[in-house]
Amino acid sequence: GAKVVVISQWRKTISIGKIIKMLNDAGFLFWYKILNTDDWFCSDAKRSREIKDFLRAVVEVNRYHEEYVIIDDSKDYEDYQLKHLVSPDPEKGFTREDMEKAIKILEGAK
Fold this sequence. Notes:
alpha/beta, 4 helices, 4 strands, 11% strand, globular
């Protein structure tokens, strides 16, 4: 099934456990699909490249491009990745609207 990749700046200041709790508290029922990316996104590479490399390494190569959601406050992505992107407002955080968009993406990956 689909996976959730959190690459937001949050990952630098908030632990993956706290991110999962925050999303779960917001009603995001797919919290268990969040991949721990702590050791992957450390470079200064473009985020779109980091996501692509991460998914190739972690998820089945033939299906990586279809079954993921990117939760990121940046929109620095390749065109083909935008349909996977949920971009929370940095001032508001992850909202119910963001959650609903992420769920639609995940449900579309079935």
